[in-house]
Amino acid sequence: MPKTNLQPVWPDMTPQDLSPEQMALAALRAEIDSVDDQLLALFQRRLDIAARVGLAKDAPHGPHTKLRPDREQTVLSRMLARAEPGYADAVEGLWREIVGWGLARQGQLQVQVWAPTDPTRAFDGARHRFGAAAAIRMVRDPQAALAFAAEGRGVAVLAINTDDPWWLGLRRDWSSLSVFDGFGQTGGQPTSLAVGKIDPAALPRGRSVIVTAGGDAGDGGGARRWGLNTHHGWTLALTDAALTPGDAEGCVGAIG
């Protein structure tokens, strides 16, 4: 083994001074260093490309945010399909961070989180979803967070397991906003929703989020519904039905 590979591990020793175990460890550490060098070069290359994407013709523009949940969903699904099953959680966490830092090359994402009950769950869900590159802070007023998102300044993450029916405004006051993700799952259902000025064409593929009058029963067409919250005869729910945001069915977004 060349002495140069040993110096970072045992700088004052020669191969003749090392035990077989130390030699094996030095070889593994040298291999890790080589892989790290390759990862660094590829990561920086990806960041450069992400910055160019922000300037491309098909990048988000106009009144919508730069977020493309559909693209993020495609990237993550592709990586998870290629990953070894035992590494799936690690791969998902890593790619969330990679995508987040790539997005930051187009400007830091601002996230406001409102969760009067169990705020840690909502904050951790937002951090996992948007990564360390995002600027995330807790706020005390869901309407202020919605106004912040409606101005296109960032996104809001709002708890739905509360007595505040802020979600009713998605059909009226905040109709320019769309739900594009949900996390903090309890019993398989989200406890917080991510809301922003998302291009409807960029929403993820998955269950639609609806705000409708009535309960959470199916519509008779075979599409199932899962109720998330209710208020004075109105229901926030998920559905398998293929709906378009803003249509007559009360669709206000989608969760991948």
TrEMBL record:
Its EC number is 5.4.99.5. It is an enzyme of class 5 (isomerase). GO terms for molecular function: chorismate mutase activity. One of its GO terms (biological process) is chorismate metabolic process. InterPro entries: Chorismate_II_sf, CM_dom_sf, CM_II_prokaryot. Residues 19-110 form the Chorismate mutase domain. This is chorismate mutase. It comes from Brevundimonas subvibrioides (strain ATCC 15264 / DSM 4735 / LMG 14903 / NBRC 16000 / CB 81).
